Amino acid sequence: MSASERFWDLVCDHRPHLAFLLSLLVGLGAITVLGFWLADPGSPEYVIAVVNMGIVLVAFVPIGYCIRRCLRREQYAEDSSE
């Protein structure tokens, strides 16, 4: 087993935790969008919402990728066993 396979085995063991984090990020993103809608452009609240959205997106992409990769590995393993 290669190091890459061991890494993804370890990551995929924590897929339920990653799914929880992803759902949390979706919720935080929704609250941030609400902040964009309620805040006036240029206000401190608006700037905080912009920074927060950047943080949410930066976290969302790798977590989403890991979940997607784990699901594809599971499908590949199921197809291989048949």
Quick summary:
The protein has a domain at 26-75. It is 89% helix and 0% strand. The protein is built from three helices and no strands.
Shape: elongated
Q: Measured on Cα atoms, how large is the radius of gyration?
A: 18 Å
How big a fraction of the residues is strand? Answer: under 5%
Number of helices: 3
Secondary structure class reads mainly alpha
Query: What do the pLDDT scores average to?
Result: 92
pLDDT below 50 for ≥5 consecutive residues: which ranges? none
Task: Characterize the largest beta sheet: strand count, sense, and whether it forms a barrel.
Answer: none
What is the helix content? over 70%
Distance between the termini: 21 Å
Order of helices and strands: HHH
Number of strands: 0
How would you describe this structure to a colleague?
By secondary structure, the protein is an all-alpha fold. The chain has a domain at 26-75. The protein has 3 helices and no strands. The protein has helices at residues 3-13, 15-38, 44-81. Helix 1 packs across helix 3. The protein is elongated. It starts with a helix and ends with a helix. The model has no long low-confidence stretch (mean pLDDT 92).
